[in-house]
Specification:
By secondary structure, the protein is mostly beta strands. It has strands spanning 3-7, 10-12, 18-25, 35-42, 49-54, 60-62, 70-75, 80-85, 94-102, 108-110, 114-118. 0% of the residues lie in helices and 52% in strands.
Length: 120
C-alpha cells in the first residue's frame, strides 16, 4: 500500500507563489520510479481536476490554465513530487491532492490533500 502525504499548503496573496510537496512511502520491494505521479485540485462545489502530471520517465503534462505558471518535479531518490505554483489567483483556492498510479498495474493512490487558499 502506497502512502502519500502532502505538505506546503497555506494562505498566499494573489500573485504570490507556493510550493507543495508529496512524500510517498512505497512498500518494500517496489520502487517510486514505477509510478506516474500527479497533482490534482478540488475547489468547494467543483469536481476534482488534473493540475499537472509527471510520468515515470519524466514527461510532464499541465492543465491549460496553469501552463507557464506551475512546474511539477520529482525526486526518485527521495520519493517526492513537488508542485511549484507561481502567480496564483483566487480561483485556484482548493485542496490539492497528490496522486500515484503504477505504470503497468494501474493501481492508484491518493493523499489526504493540502489546502491552498489564495486571498488578500
Amino acid at each position: 500500500q502506497v502512502q502519500l502525504v502532502e505538505s506546503g499548503g497555506g494562505l498566499v496573496q494573489p500573485g504570490g507563489s507556493l510550493n507543495v510537496s508529496c512524500k510517498a512511502t512505497i512498500p518494500s520491494g517496489e520502487f517510486f520510479r514505477m509510478y506516474n505521479m500527479g497533482w490534482y485540485r478540488q475547489a468547494p462545489g467543483k469536481e476534482r481536476e488534473m493540475v499537472a502530471t509527471i510520468t515515470s520517465g519524466g514527461s510532464k503534462n499541465y492543465a491549460e490554465a496553469v501552463k507557464g505558471r506551475f512546474s511539477i518535479s520529482k525526486d526518485n531518490a527521495k520519493n517526492t513530487v513537488s508542485l511549484q505554483m507561481n502567480n496564483l489567483n483566487s480561483e485556484e483556492t482548493a485542496a490539492y491532492y497528490c496522486n500515484a498510479r503504477h505504470v503497468w498495474r494501474g493501481t492508484e493512490y491518493w493523499g489526504q490533500g493540502t489546502q491552498v487558499t489564495v486571498s488578500s
